[in-house]
């Protein structure tokens, strides 16, 4: 399927739940091979957008193509070539890492020696080759996230959706995930679409960032260009200027 260097292209994409417009006229074009960060507060519409683009949810209006496939007519093709790591994924703690990945592989119609080699390669890349036969219940949060990342990459997707990949992780585990994305993007040539509300994570990992607020794309560009445009020192302050959220110190202390 011809992609012309574009992994995702949306046109006037909208999603409404009852009276709530979760996504508003989203026009977005994301190049193949990059690390795109979708930044925004909780409830901004990031997860809804991912669910639409990954084929799990139908939009109210508008359209989009993912890796050259239409989200209305080619959902099965999109699911076959993309990976999705949701914010709250399932993990079978009574299985070992190898057993869990074999199970996920079977769900995707993969088995045999080719699957075993893929599992070995991913576990080695992620530094888990010495713990592959231990039960997942004995793993730390960071190690579990590595296994989940491996399960997402098991079928060699062209595009991976990561929804809040550092959610509920401590700083050390978050650093591991950040490094994983950078390494995997380079070594596997996989495109990443990363939803997050963590500005420091997005600034370190993503080469292009879109800021979503109340379902509307309000800013798009590299972290550096967004910071420069806002006239701030880092992405966190630029983000707060764009979507609001700065504390009014005078109002806060007015009672004194």
Explain the overall architecture.
The protein has 256 residues and is α/β, with parallel strands linked by helices. It has a 6-stranded mixed β-sheet with strand order 6-7-8-3-9-10, sandwiched between helices. Strands 2-1-4-5 form a 4-stranded antiparallel β-sheet, covered by helices on one side. 39% of the residues lie in helices and 25% in strands. It is built from 10 helices and 10 strands. It has helices at residues 46-53, 75-81, 97-107, 112-125, 141-153, 171-188, 199-205, 223-230, 235-243, 249-252, and strands at 6-17, 20-31, 35-39, 61-66, 69-70, 82-85, 159-163, 191-196, 208-213, 216-221. The mean pLDDT is 88. It has one domain (6-252): Rossmann fold (3-Layer(aba) Sandwich), CATH 3.40.50. The chain is globular, with a radius of gyration of 19 Å. β1 and β2 form a beta hairpin. α3 crosses α4 (112-125), α5 (141-153) runs parallel beside α6 and α8 crosses α9.
Q: Please indicate the count of domains.
A: 1
Q: What structural class do the secondary elements suggest? A: alpha/beta
End-to-end gap: 65 Å
By DSSP, the count of extended strands is 10
Helical residues, percent? 25-40%
Quote the average pLDDT. Answer: 88
Question: What percent of residues are in strands?
Answer: 25-35%
CATH architecture: 3-Layer(aba) Sandwich
**Numbering strands along the chain, what is their spatial order in the largest sheet?**
6-7-8-3-9-10
Q: Which blocks of ≥5 consecutive residues have pLDDT under 50?
A: none
The CATH superfamily turns out to be P-loop containing nucleotide triphosphate hydrolases
User: What are the secondary-structure elements, in order, as H or E?
Assistant: EEEHEEHEHHHEHEHEEHHH
Largest sheet entry: 6 strands, mixed
């Amino acid at each position: 399927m011809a992609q012309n260097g574009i992994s995702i292209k949306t046109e006037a994409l909208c999603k409404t739940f009852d009276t709530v417009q979760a996504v508003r006229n989203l026009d977005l074009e994301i190049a193949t091979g990059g690390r795109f960060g979708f930044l925004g507060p909780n409830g901004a519409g990031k997860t809804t957008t991912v669910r639409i683009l990954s084929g799990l949810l139908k939009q109210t209006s508008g359209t989009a193509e993912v890796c050259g496939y239409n989200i209305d007519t080619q959902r099965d093709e999109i699911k076959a070539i993309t990976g999705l790591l949701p914010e709250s994924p399932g993990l079978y703690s009574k299985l070992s890492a190898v057993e869990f990945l074999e199970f996920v592989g079977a769900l995707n119609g993969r088995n045999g020696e080719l699957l075993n080699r893929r599992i070995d390669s991913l576990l080695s890349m992620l530094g888990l080759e010495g713990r592959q036969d231990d039960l997942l219940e004995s793993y730390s949060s960071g190690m579990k996230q590595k296994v989940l990342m491996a399960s997402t990459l098991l079928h060699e997707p062209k595009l991976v959706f990561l929804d809040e990949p550092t959610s509920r992780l401590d700083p050390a585990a978050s650093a591991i995930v950040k490094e994983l994305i950078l390494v995997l993007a380079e070594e596997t040539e996989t495109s990443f679409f990363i939803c997050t509300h963590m500005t420091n994570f997005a600034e370190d990992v993503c080469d292009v960032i879109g800021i979503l607020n109340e379902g509307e794309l309000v800013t798009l560009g590299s972290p550096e260009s967004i910071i420069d445009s806002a006239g701030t020192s880092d992405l966190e302050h630029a983000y707060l200027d764009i979507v609001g959220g700065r504390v009014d110190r005078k109002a806060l202390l007015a009672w004194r």
